[in-house]
Amino acid sequence: MGSLQRGVRNTFRNTIRAVAVVVILAVAIAVSISMLIARDAVSAKIASVRATTGTTITVSPKGFFGFQGSGTPLTASEVTPLLSLPHVTALQETLSQRLSSTDTSLNASTPSGDLGQQFGGGFTPPVRVVGTNSPGTALVGGAFGGSTEKIVKGASFASTSDADVAILGTDLARANNLVVGSTFTAWATHVTVIGIYSAGSSFANNNVIMPLSTVQRLAHQAGQLTGATLTVDTLSHVAATTTLVSHKLGSTADVTSTVQTTQTALAPLDSVQTISTYTLFGAVAGAGIILLLSMLMIVRERRREIGVLKAIGAPTGSIIRQFIAESTTFTVLGSVVGAGVGIVMSSPIASALVSATGDTSPAGGFIRPPGGSPGGFTGGGNGFTPPSGMPTGSFRFGGFGRTLTQLHTSVGWGTLSAAFAIAILVAVIGASVAVASVVRVRPAEVLRSE
Amino acid sequence: MLIITSLNKTFKTPAGDVTAVRDVSFSTKPGEMVAIVGASGSGKSTLLSLLGLLESPDNGSIKVDDVELAGLDAKGRTAYRARKVGFVFQQFNLIPNLSALENVMLPLEFAGWSVSERKTRAREVLSTVGLGDDKVLRRPAKLSGGEQQRVAIARALVTNPGLILADEPTGNLDRKTGERIIALLRDAAEQEKRTVVVVTHDEKIATAADRRLEIEDGVLREIA
Question: Which of A42, A199, A229, A238 could share a disulfide with A149, CB 3.0–4.6 Å?
Answer without folding.
Answer: A199
